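Go through this one:
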Amino acid sequence: MTEPDRAAWRGNASIGAGWAAFVGHAGDNHAHAHHTLQLAVAEAGDVVVEVGQREAVGAPGILIDAGVLHRLHPGHMRLFYVEATGAAGKALSGRCLGGLRTFSDIERQALLVRWPEASLAGPRPLLEALGISEGTIASTLEREDRVDRVIASLARRLEDATSLTSLAADAALSPSRFRHLVSERVGMPLRPYVRWLRLQRALESAARGANLTEAAQSAGFADAAHLTRTMRRHFGVPPSAVVALLRQD
């Protein structure tokens, strides 16, 4: 494989609120750290990653904690990114030791079986495959329809989605109570959740043909540079790489 081929990302990507998934050839050759946890699983053989100044580590599956400097060796694999501040991210982070957790071939097979569900619904199927209990990852302790309706509306009203006072008023709750219930419902605080919704809107807009400036502004980012910084913070790659994958899908 030539160096340009090794550097290219090829495959299919999907993104939801608080998570993103990729299946294909990962080509990132530069050390980076991002805000999300990253689960890398090889369909055969090992995933190889360099973490900090340590020697390269190889295993059927590897979980990298948020904020950990790493370089993923190119190869065919499945990647899953999870927001660090959410319930799922915290549950996974607790499994890391020194910023890393390796998985056995048996664990790899369990993850691969549940992967298609995760690529549509989010991290819950993968957490269950890793033996993380429902009680650990479930945030919903109370049900109030008006809160659920406001949360469901956030993707359509990103322009005012960070106004805690306005959103709480729509739910007929105090801001502190609304903030608490949002965290229970979606598994993460309001601001990170809205940030994922903005990323999702921007990437979907770009995948439909908008340029990065148009896509960024449609999702509430100041400009393309702001969108790019946010993408690199979460995934370690520029938006153009993900948009190309979404267009293929």
Notes: The chain is about 45% helix and 20% strand. The domain at 3-136 is CATH 2.60.120.10 (Jelly Rolls). The longest helix spans residues 190-207.
